[in-house]
Each structure stands twice: as C-alpha cells, then as structure tokens.
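Holo prediction. Input below; ligand is adenosine-5'-diphosphate.
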Amino acid sequence: MLIVQKYGGTSVGNVERIKAVAERVVRTANEGNSVVVIVSAMSGETDKLIGLANQISQNPSEREMDLLLSSGERVTSALTAMAIEALGRKAIALTGRQAGIITDTVHTKAKIEKISGDRIRKALDEGYVVVIAGFQGVTEGESEVTTLGRGGSDLSAVAIASGINADVCEIYTDVDGVYTTDPNIVSEARKLSKISYEEMLELASLGAKVLQTRSVEFAMKHGVPVVVRSSFNDNPGTLVTKEDVDMEKVVVSGVAYDKNQAKITVMGVPDKPGIAAKLFKGIADANIVVDMIVQNVSSDSKATDISFTVPKTDNKKALKMTEDMARELGAKGVTLREDTAKISIVGVGMRTHSGVAAKMFETLAGHSVNIMMISTSEIKVSCVIDAKYTELAVRVLHDAFGLEA
Ligand code: ADP
Ligand code: ASP
Ligand code: MG
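Structure of the complex:
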C-alpha cells in the first residue's frame, strides 16, 4: 500500500517523540508499504515564532512571516528523516518547494493549486521514506514561500495523498480519533468509529481543531480516505468517509466550540440598499472570512445595527477596515467584542428531525447562558455566547443530546 502519515505538533514535540514517530514509520515501511510522512513543527514552535515577530513589529510583513513560520516544519522534517535513517531505513526530507507544492500568492493562508508528485514518486521508487515539511508551499514562478493557515499540515497531508494517489491518509495526533466533542473538555466524550466528510467539515469549521477545515474540504472533494489516530498508542482511530444510511439516524453527532471568533458591531447604519454589500465587499477584499452576520432594523428608525464575526487573528485588520467603512457610510460607531465563543451542534440527522434548535436554546437558557447571535444550516446550529461559559455550554449540550459514552 501507499500510505501517507501526518504527525502533528505534539507527536513530534521533542526528540523522544520524533524517535517514536520514526519507529512507527519504519514499522509501516517494513510491512511492505511505501510511506510518505508529513510533519508539523514541534508543538508550540509556530506560536513561538509568531511571538518573536510580534516583539519586533506590530504589523510584520506577511511575506516575511511565511518565511519565518515555514522554518518550524523544516526542522522536524530533517530530524524525522535522520531518526528514520538511524533505524536503518533510507529517508529523505523535503521542503514544500522540493516536494512540488505550488500555491496561490495569498501569504499566511495560501491555497494549494497543484502538486507535482514527480520527486516524491521518484524517491519512493528508489526505496526512500519521504518526509515532507507540512504547512508550506511556494508560488509558481517567483517561488515565494507561503504557508497554508494554522493547522495547515493536515491540508499538506491530504493534498499530497490525493496528488500521489495514496491508499490512505493517516492523521496522527494526541487523541485517539474524532470524538463527539473535544475529549480534553468533556471526559465523557465518545470516540466515533467513522464520521461523514460533511459532518467533519462542519465540526472542523466550527472549531474542532482535530482536523483543519480546508483539509476536510479537500478530502471530501477528492475522495481521500482519512483516518485520525493517536501517535501515542495503536488504538483504531476514526475513519472520515462518505455518508451512509446509518449516519442519518443520529440527530446530533457532535458539539464544537470556537473561541477564536471576535464580534464586530456597526451601530446606526443607514437602512438603505447597498450598505451591507459595500461593507462586506471591503472585508472580503482584505481576505478576511466573515462567519455569522446579524442585521437588526428597529421599526421606529431609519438605521440598523449590523453585527458579524471574524477570526480573532484578523480582528485588528477587520476593525480598522470596518471603522473606515463606517465613517464612509455615515454609521454611528463600531464596537469590537473579543470575549465571545461560538458553540455549535452538528449532525446530518438534523435534516430529518425537528426541534433540535429549540432544544439547544432551552438547554443553554436552563443554565442562564445568554445567546448573542444564532445561525443555522441544514446540519448545524451555532450560537455565539460569552466566552466564559464555553466549557459549561459544551458539557450541558453534550449531555442534553445524549452523546456520552
Ligand atoms: P495536532 O498538533 O496533532 O495537529 P491539534 O491540537 O491540532 O493536533 O488537534 C488535536 C486536538 O483537537 C485534541 O487534542 C483535542 O483537544 C482537539 N479537539 C477538538 N475537538 C475534538 C473532537 N471532536 N475530537 C477530537 N479532538 C478534538
Ligand atoms: N505548525 C503549524 C501550526 O501550528 C501547522 C500545523 O501544525 O499543522 O499551525
Ligand atoms: Mg492540528
């Protein structure tokens, strides 16, 4: 078999962990498989590099930021290849560029455009285990180094698995698989033996960082079978795959939370056509992803309030942009709230069951948790709440929907 194995930050967090990873890789190769390994930076390393940049500049150039951040994964790729060699298997470490990962030019959140798998395939044919630095690529032509957004090594792994037609993409992390909610918050959370791409996509985009959102999107689009497993044991993991009939029987499959959303409110916006279009066009042009949007028109006024959420990492940029726009549009003012969290319930069974949202609101109300914003889709309901109630909300919803083991 051709197997892609991705190891996250904790899994390569120190020399001992890297040696343990090398042992698993060598075991897999010795069983007769061709193995491509994608590694993250050591845990905490990317944050440390961001911290260094922020000590130097309030607003570091995104190009230089990418050059800086991509270094973390270079370190672990080289060390992992050395550890595999030390166990007697041929291994070669490749940067994103050497592996042929071509991206667009959007620094710090680049999209993969293509992968020329030639060098990877050649090395595999020559009997090497190929170790690739995750999270990075280069632009076509200028070969500018880019990174794929936080958690982006998952995307590297899935995209490479698809590019070389691997039989499976295994994501090794610090938990045994995908759970009904974050097992580090709710100890009663239950491991799922399989989950549909669609549900996984919702869970990921709603904050379950066990898989990066874009990696799930990519896997779904290209039908890459993904297995999430622990690098600390041999327990069977969770298969992320196409939806089957059994999955619809479960109304709610998981609860997710996201503390990385900030809420921006534009107050007293004139209530006339074209205002929202103008506001959100500006924000979109700055490559900021807006999530929830709520607009309220009071019946006795010609003005409205518009609230929306953006990733906290973009909030300075988004706030400045919104303030400029608010002045232009003649709005009364702009406020930013950072102490918010989004809590969501997800399940394909919601398509065929009613009363799910009501039960969620009732459960939160029963614990005096106020809801600031609501959004729904076919298979999810999300509420923005005060961040200090995050853990409480996750626990009571997990319990209310009977998700415990
Ligand atoms: P890695 O460094 O291996 O990429 P991450 O920290 O990105 O690992 O993702 C793993 C973490 O995801 C777990 O430690 C867990 O706290 C968190 N997590 C959140 N929601 C879930 C979930 N539903 N199932 C499993 N893990 C989850
Ligand atoms: N090291 C990067 C991050 O911390 C990418 C990854 O770990 O997937 O976001
Ligand atoms: Mg991750």
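Residues 8-9, 40-41, 46, 72, 134-135, 150-154 surround aspartic acid (ligand 2) (CB under 6 Å). That is the main takeaway for now.
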